Amino acid sequence: MANASVFGFTKDLTLVSNVPKKDKSVVPLPSLHHDSAIYSDSGKPEIIVFCNKTKCAVDLLVHLCAMYTVQRATRIWIMAMFCAMINITAINALVIYAHYMRQTQPEKKIKRKDSLRFAHDLVTPFVTQRYRLSSLRRNIKTAIVVCGFVSDSEENSMQDLEDYEAISRNRVRCHVCSSSRDVKKQFVC
Q: Fewer CB within 10 A of the end CB, N or C, for the chain?
């Protein structure tokens, strides 16, 4: 019963069940093909051959999304869907950028580092705006500087401004510590 195929048709879809070998079945549901054409040399349906030719693009997309992902461990399904859409959108943006660059500058090669530079350029204004918040924790500020979002001169000018604001503030309860400790300081613990 190897390489047996059964077709099912509706108005817009074609279902094909193909058994290439024993205990293995392939069941695609394409909307592109509407006939039961089978290649005589291989005995495979045309739908299966077409899916095999085009599935490498889907595999590449899945590979790139796993390589450069914004996904975080979450139990909220809408957040997981949103992160997956951002991953796919980033890969699509890189494809459009590469196509544009091939037309305007054919001698320039597009590398994967370009996608990282592209992402870095997109988030830099938002990260520097967040860096300017006085309530931002020090470890996050250090991470922003280490990642290269803020230059050294900009960091020093912002630090001077923060020191001046900290000196002029009154002592308040630390929002990081528990309320039972009742710690009052000028700076965050």
A: N
